[in-house]
Write a sequence for this structure.
């Protein structure tokens, strides 16, 4: 142990009275405190999960586990290989446990909090004895101001960890930062879009303008359709005759408050009782209001749009599914036949066989294709968040609940399809509630007093043998039979060897276009090796291998006769090739950035894309490292 900051940390731990023989953190949240902590960080957890999963996939099977904490070191999410995750749970490295120095002594996450930079420590550099068998690599996740808002950590046994492990964690933390900033920018754009719709969105929203007396001055065609009157009749009404609560709304606006995206009761000629309403004052000056503009949106359409924003909609169709294998073509044909049914579908298949691709394709082939497609990974959402994520909650349902409550995934999917991936990971109490949705077609929000009917097609997916899980008591038998009405089994890639060449061609073109690289010629000998490989990771593994080949522009060094060789070569490919194991992380990063900038002849846009970071981040790094190119 030669690093001064580690010695200083050990000294602080000793002065604080931290016992090196403890096994658990001195501070662990449980019950409502944990629930509130996870709810406060819901968006952070959901944003970070895909990147945690991506980094974990590189080391899967090598006894690693990933941890996400918030800004004080409180664990928000943990997952990894079964053996090591069991050891971590035995040491109560679970959501709610704090990893700061005072709570558990010196570790990579505590040092990130004190040193404000990426850290990797190993063995006895940890303060408590229970962690001496591990190496931890952690990096801060910062907001746009540079403030630490969380930490990403990857832990494994000392013998399995390399210098580049920390590089992977740093890259993932940068990606999370970029996605959080992108989400923030998108939210700002969404708000601006709603204001623009006040004037231009006459097709999708009903727009009514009134004077201060409540007389209707103008109404667009959509507004007439929504209320069911012709223009002449419509203008005979006062606005409060069509809108409940009009006077309280205007009173609030006159006091400087906003009234946007609220569900209101209306009186229409049509069988409509509720619309979503935003009201905007038209001002002559900052103090004088001359008119009001009322923008009405159908509640179901609003949910549909929200669903598309949240899930990016269903983009895959059967036309985009690649395969000529007879068994696979029969699977596609069967999927098309059941697409228009309202019965539940259970898609089974090994990891990486394309279960969500089929779910999206079925949705887009059905009569629900114009309605929302909402995908939910049941294994990615912490147990304490899954109910509010699926069913939503009312305002005031719990501490930290946002004003106006929150729509759940089932409500957003109303009229369309909800895809429940990794259904085998759903907690038993939620299985009961899902069974009720299937049988009765109604949901109840957390804190809600009434039930809400929903019209949803449910497609579930699993890589587990659910029948076996039922026999073990891990999954409800009645729910299994309710989900397995239309079973769909996707064949693994090893049973579709005649499709491998076409898939490689597709992934090669797609990857080369995305990375701006040349295609790599696959020899017949190597292609035969690919056909004979067993592909435990299926299509996802094949796509990752093609990306590796494109990046390295090389086929050599990969022995496909060994089941473990693909995982090994992927780890090697992440090495920055700095040629000196003693280089610090900053020196390695500087060398790699310089190499990429030189490759693209100083083109910052192309270099940032290749490095998978934003241009502003690259400019900051160039300035920080004084890179000349």
């Amino acid at each position: 142990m030669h690093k001064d900051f580690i010695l200083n940390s050990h000294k602080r731990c000793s002065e604080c009275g931290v016992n090196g023989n403890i096994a658990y953190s001195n501070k662990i949240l449980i019950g409502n405190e944990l629930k509130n902590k996870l709810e406060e960080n819901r968006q952070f957890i959901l944003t970070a999960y895909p990147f945690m999963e991506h980094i974990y996939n590189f080391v899967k099977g090598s006894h690693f586990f990933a941890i996400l904490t918030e800004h004080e070191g409180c664990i928000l999410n943990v997952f990894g290989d079964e053996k090591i995750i069991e050891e971590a749970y035995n040491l109560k490295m679970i959501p709610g446990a704090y990893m700061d120095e005072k709570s558990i002594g010196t570790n990579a996450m505590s040092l990130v909090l004190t040193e404000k930079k990426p850290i990797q420590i190993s063995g006895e550099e940890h303060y408590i004895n229970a962690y001496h068998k591990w190496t931890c690599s952690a990096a801060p996740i910062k907001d746009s101001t540079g403030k630490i808002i969380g930490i990403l950590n990857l832990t494994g046994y000392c013998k399995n960890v390399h210098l580049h492990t920390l590089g992977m964690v740093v890259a993932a933390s940068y990606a999370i930062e970029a996605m959080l900033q992108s989400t923030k920018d998108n939210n700002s754009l969404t708000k601006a879009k709603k204001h623009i719709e006040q004037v231009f969105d006459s097709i999708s929203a009903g727009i009514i303008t009134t004077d201060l007396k409540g007389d209707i001055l103008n109404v667009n065609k959509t507004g007439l359709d929504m209320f069911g009157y012709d223009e002449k009749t419509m203008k005979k009404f006062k606005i409060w005759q069509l809108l409940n609560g009009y006077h309280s709304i205007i009173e609030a606006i006159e006091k400087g408050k906003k009234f946007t995206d609220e569900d209101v009761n209306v009186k229409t000629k049509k069988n409509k009782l509720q619309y979503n309403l935003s009201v905007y004052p038209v001002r002559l000056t900052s103090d004088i209001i001359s008119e009001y503009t009322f923008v009405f949106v159908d509640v179901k359409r609003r949910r549909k749009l929200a669903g598309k924003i949240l899930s990016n909609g269903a983009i895959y169709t059967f036309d985009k599914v690649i395969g000529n294998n007879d068994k696979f073509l029969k699977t596609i044909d069967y999927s098309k036949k059941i697409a228009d049914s309202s019965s539940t579908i259970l898609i089974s298949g090994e990891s990486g066989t394309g279960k969500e691709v089929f779910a999206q394709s079925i949705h887009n082939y059905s009569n629900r294709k114009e309605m929302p497609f909402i995908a939910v990974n049941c294994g990615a959402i912490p147990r304490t968040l899954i109910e509010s994520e699926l069913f939503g909650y009312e305002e005031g349902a719990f501490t930290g609940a946002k004003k106006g409550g929150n729509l759940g995934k089932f409500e957003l999917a109303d009229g369309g399809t909800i895809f429940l991936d990794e259904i085998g990971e759903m907690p038993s109490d939620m299985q009961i509630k899902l069974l009720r949705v299937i049988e009765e077609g109604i949901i109840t929000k957390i804190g809600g007093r009434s039930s809400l009917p929903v019209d949803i097609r449910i497609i579930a997916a699993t890589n587990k043998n659910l029948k076996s899980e039922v026999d073990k008591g891990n999954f409800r038998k009645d729910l299994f039979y309710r989900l397995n009405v239309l079973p769909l089994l996707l064949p693994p890639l090893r049973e579709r060897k005649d499709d491998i060449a076409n898939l490689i061609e597709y992934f090669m073109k797609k990857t080369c276009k995305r990375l701006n690289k040349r295609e790599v010629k696959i020899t017949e000998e190597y292609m035969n090796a690919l056909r004979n490989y067993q592909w435990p990771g299926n299509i996802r593994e094949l796509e990752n291998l093609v990306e590796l080949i494109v990046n390295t522009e090389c086929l050599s060094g990969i022995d496909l006769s060994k089941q473990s060789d693909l995982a090994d070569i992927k780890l090697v490919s992440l090495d920055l090739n700095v040629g000196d194991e003693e280089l610090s992380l900053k020196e390695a990063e500087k060398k790699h950035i310089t190499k990429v900038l030189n490759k693209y002849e100083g083109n910052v846009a192309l270099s940032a894309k290749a490095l998978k970071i934003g241009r502003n981040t690259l400019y900051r790094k160039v300035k920080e490292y004084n890179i000349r190119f």
Summary: The two ends are 37 Å apart (CA to CA).
